[in-house]
From TrEMBL:
NCBIfam families: transpos_IS630
Organism domain of life: Bacteria
Domain Tc1-like transposase DDE stretches: 173-317
One Pfam family matching this protein: DDE_3
Protein name from the UniProt record: IS630 family transposase
């Protein structure tokens, strides 16, 4: 049974809106039918005649007549529908986060999506993955950090950085350290041709050892040049022998030497007393990255040592010496670009020591 028709009175403004809706080529069909129903009803048409012209049931015409009469243009919009209740809620998300704060099951190194779903019991693994992605939680990635516990960190760091940015006049600033146990490995090497025609350099997985060498290096901060020698061991006696060669390279000059906190670098007061022109400066504990020679060791590894093969220890040493000579020909000082040092925080991450 069709309800009694409601009279529809259109304002001039509403009529313009509905007529524009009917003329627009992008109007949705449902909105177009509702606009036509209201316009025809405002012209005094009956419910059944409107239904026949628009192509809908009379009850639909009656519905939109009543909706417009009661609420105006807003009544022609769809009312919000409750929809299906979500399976997983914020309580589920809190359970996942709480589980991540706990150690993984015994025998496992870290949590995975399936392990989390299994531990929760009633949460699908696909939802676990979606939740982790939405919160940018990467279970596989690993970050390492090193926090210095040196109570004099600020003073020591300022001392070292000061030598870089404002070295004493008429003095030489050197960064000294060792790269121990560089292996002379012999590997078969050559080019590999892939089925798709691409050629790659490669090396055999198997190798033969021919001994190790320890490289002592001193980087001159002002020029970027390197002084390097080889040694079988890295004891105090080898370190002081290297320092003797360094002082001999700069006769009569005041030397400021930056070192890390290796035990062999400390407690050398008798040697320092015999060499009054030399002053040692130590980086803070767990902050040897402040020593610029560590940057050069990284360059040496990448440009000279990675992917090479040596048939003897002497060949390895000669190879490194040749690289040092080539590097010194084009050496440039490292430029200190950091303007202000701030503590880097782990944003949005919780760090729990287990």
């Amino acid at each position: 049974m069709v309800p009694e028709a409601r009279e529809v009175h259109l304002s001039r403004k509403d009529r313009k809106v509905l007529e524009a809706c009917c003329r627009s080529p992008v109007t949705l069909q449902r909105d177009l039918k509702r606009a036509r129903i209201v316009l025809l009803a405002a012209d005094g048409r009956s419910t059944r005649s409107i239904a026949k012209e628009v192509g809908v049931q009379p009850r639909i015409v009656s519905l939109w007549r009543h909706r417009y009469a009661d609420h105006g243009l807003e009544g022609l919009q769809d009312k919000p529908r409750p929809g299906k209740q979500p399976i997983y809620t914020k309580a589920t998300d809190k359970r996942i986060l709480k589980l991540l704060d706990k150690p993984p099951p015994q025998g496992f190194a870290r949590w995975t999506g399936p392990l989390l779903a299994e531990a929760l019991g009633d949460v699908d693994v696909q939802y676990v993955w979606r939740f982790l992605r939405s919160h940018k939680i990467d279970l596989a990635a690993r970050k390492s950090w090193c926090e210095s516990n040196d109570p004099n960190f600020t003073a020591k760091a300022a001392d070292v950085v000061g030598l870089y940015v404002a070295p004493p006049s008429k003095a030489i600033v050197l960064c000294v350290d060792e790269k121990p146990s560089i292996q002379a490995l012999e590997r078969a090497q050559g080019y590999l041709k892939l089925p798709n025609g691409r050629a790659l350099t490669g090396q055999s997985h198997d190798y033969k050892r021919h001994g190790t060498t320890t490289l002592f290096a001193a980087l001159e901060v002002a020029t970027g040049k390197i002084i390097a020698t080889h040694s079988k061991r890295r004891r105090r006696v080898e370190f002081l022998d290297f320092m003797n060669s360094v002082t001999a390279a700069f006769p009569g000059r005041k030397l400021h030497v930056i070192l890390d906190n290796l035990n062999t670098h400390k407690k050398n007061e008798p040697w320092l007393k015999a060499h009054p022109n030399v002053q040692f400066h130590f980086t803070p504990t767990s902050a040897s990255w402040l020593n610029q020679v560590e940057v050069w060791f990284s360059i040496l590894q990448g440009q000279s040592l990675s992917g090479t093969s040596f048939t003897s220890l002497r060949q390895l040493q000669e190879h490194i010496d040749a690289y040092v000579n080539a590097y010194n020909d084009k050496a440039e000082p490292f430029v200190w670009t950091k303007k202000k040092v701030r503590q880097r925080r782990f944003k949005g991450r919780r760090i729990t020591q287990l």
